Amino acid sequence: MLSPFFQQHADYVSISREQGCRFAKCVADDFNPLHDKDAKKFCAPGDLLFSLVLERYGISEQMEFTFAGMVDENTKLHFPEGAEEFDVTNGEKVILKVKRSGKTSQCPALTNSLIKNYVEFSGTTFPHVIIPLMGKQEVMINPARPMIIYESMLINLDNLDITAPILEFAEPSFEYTGKRGKITLRFNLLENGVKVGSGEKHMVVSGIREYCQATVDDLIAFYNERKATLKPT
Fold first, then answer.
1. Distance, CA of 25 to CA of 146 (rounded, Å)
2. How many CB atoms lie under 10 A from the CB of residue 21?
3. Considering Cα of 22, then 24, then 26, then 27, what sign does the dihedral take?
4. Are 45 and 34 in contact (CB under 8 A)?
């Protein structure tokens, strides 16, 4: 499933600008300019790194991912031998911290389903979830420089006797002090209509400013126009 989006070298993995861009737009429906192949400061999607870990190590009942560094086209990702707790690194620099516990499944159907459902959820939360969520408290991101950083995420599964769970949104939250805040996006995992797990995605936002409806309307219109123009056919 993920082979078109990374390159496996002898002892490390790399992600080209083209590969990161295509994953963002074709798989995650994520049109963040940082993921454009010609971005001045390109960054591969964090969800691609998350997906690579799941495909390589399998699905555990409890999983926590903490993003500690950005991945560009020059990053050499080193994945260690599987363990309950490990770091994905670029040389000595930690890129992603992973904690896992409970039983583990290597079922390809479950892995692919969880990757697909989570990545689609994650990529489509901006602007249509995040902006209204912040708007309830009369604030918004800085449209000239929208700084929303993917900080961490976690998934808890009740058991691994599942094959194709679907994801549904749960109640998100937003709290802030001054110009910095934290967004928590929550979801439940269902199989055959029964809840089988839950999870959260944590994001840090900076440059918070007073809400302006006209600015928000322009921002959403710009995003939708950009998506319509850049989405691959």
1. 19
2. 23
3. positive
4. no
CA distance 202 to 184: 5
Query: What end-to-end distance do the CA atoms of the chain give, in Å?
Result: 19
DSSP-assigned letters across all residues of 165-229: -EEEE---EEEEETTEEEEEEEEEEEETTEEEEEEEEEEEEES-EE--HHHHHHHHHHHHHHHHH
pLDDT digits (tens, 9 = 90+) for 2-51: 999 999 999 999 999 999 999 999 999 888 888 999 999 999 999 999 99
C-alpha–C-alpha distance, residues 17 and 14, integer Å: 10
Q: Is the four-CA dihedral 45, 196, 174, 133 of positive or negative sign?
A: positive
**Per-residue model confidence (pLDDT) at position 75:** 98
Q: Which burial class, exposed, middle or buried, applies to 144 when counting CB atoms under 10 A from its CB (0-12, 13-18, 19+)? A: exposed
* Contact predicate 224/18, CB 8 Å: no
